[in-house]
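Think of the structure tokens as a kind of shorthand, similar to the way a musician reads notation: each symbol stands for something richer, in this case the local conformation of the backbone. In the example below we present two proteins back to back. Begin with the first one, reading the sequence and then the tokens, and try to describe in your own words what changes along the chain.
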Amino acid sequence: MTEFLEANFLLCIGLFVVGFVLIILGGDRFVDASVAISKRFGIPQVVIGATIVSLGTTLPEVLVSTTAAFQGQGDMAVGNAFGSIVCNTLLIAAIPQLVNPSTGIKRSDIGWRGIMFFATYLVVMAVGWMTGSLNRFMGIALLAVFVFYAYMSMKSAGGDEEEETSGEGDSLVKSVVTIVVAAAMLFVGAQLLVNCGTVIATRVGVPQGVIAVTFVALGTSLPELVTSVTALIKGHQDVSLGNIIGANTLNLLLVLGIPAAITGINITDNAFYLASPFGLGAMLIFLLPFLLKGRGYKWQGALMLALYVVYTVLSFTVV
């Protein structure tokens, strides 16, 4: 794919623009359809963000890690998962809180999700540091936790609405189809931006190290970024909040769980030893204000952005 794009540079530029348009349109429709389902069933937007939206935006990470596992490169999932958690939290979650902090968040909507995330994170981090790997048993355990997470999410999302009328049913089907199509647009658009952006950057002389930290590292997080910014513009920042919580949880349960269950993961990348503590600290800064006060703050967003700068600099100098 990359060789073909390098040989057709003008086509690569055109596809880069197409990718940009796809993620913008996909993010716009994804948020609209998700909010429509939220209103239809009386489900809090933060819950929709933590379930439907996060599952759709985490699709690139899941596919990349699964493909890598079948190619015998399961350890790539480690940097993918923890790097995405850091990026999702310190960059993507920071922007909405800095511009327009979320308020009136019910602890019941995010409490058990936060507890599950931190418990899983600490276990994965401890096992990785002590054994240097995540074996198949650990992968199966993570997938089992995902099944429990999905069950709890569906249970907590149960609404009290009356039986649907025909028109409402049609509207629901339309929203679901829109979400599926929009998720596909986000994935294809992100792939085009990453692949073509890397080729363009290489052609104009950007160092490989910079490309790795920008296009490749941010590439699989583009759907979360576009969805969060779109939700912020449309005044649905609670969708963005739920999206980050859900996406980070799925990074642990699926992005790590699937390749670990298939082949096991050897943790040989030094990035793990930088990204894993940063990810834990990032989520503490992000979630604690919501769990304690039920709202976010502008200082919270500013602090997370500052830490992202520190993380990026350390990625160049330490890893």
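Once you have a description of the first chain, move to the second and do the same.
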Amino acid sequence: MQIYLIRHGETEWNLERRYQGSQDISLSQTGREQLRPARLRPERVYVSRMKRARETAELLFPGVPQVVVPDLQEMNFGVFEGRNYIEMEHDPEYRAWVDGNCEGKCPGGESQEEFTERTVRAVSGLLTACRERGEDPVVIVAHGGTEMSLLSRCGRPEKPYYSWLTGNGKGYLLDDADWWDQGILRVTGKIDLTKKG
């Protein structure tokens, strides 16, 4: 089974480097214009519940039914959401989180470990259901954090968490051959669904 793991298109908050997390932000006009329809036509597209993922899926796969998987949503950054690092450079809670390699629990939000557990659990259930239906390929449109959390735990070749981040409208092609007995998703290619790609 081939798995397409795609990050949503650009938002204004991406440009402003604001933590979006659980905030339901739409794509920017530029973000919409940068995406091109994919040649692939899956049976359905699995999406985070966030508008930016659903809007991206509609632009990339017009008319394809979407299935919302709530636990695919971005990490909850708690009190940091809506702000950027410049605005928080003197915030002691933010400094403590950054100094801990951004792995600790965000005040009012999740830790990187909690987020990773949630993402892996969601994808595991999704892949099991798709396998039972004989669905191939599987297309997931979610978030940069979704990519990083899943692949830092399960992706091969092994790479650190932040090494897996892609640009908006980009992602990875994965193979499930080693998933069922080893919990490994092998990266077989990169995806670029922007008009530049």
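Compare your description with these statements about the second chain. The chain has seven helices and seven strands.
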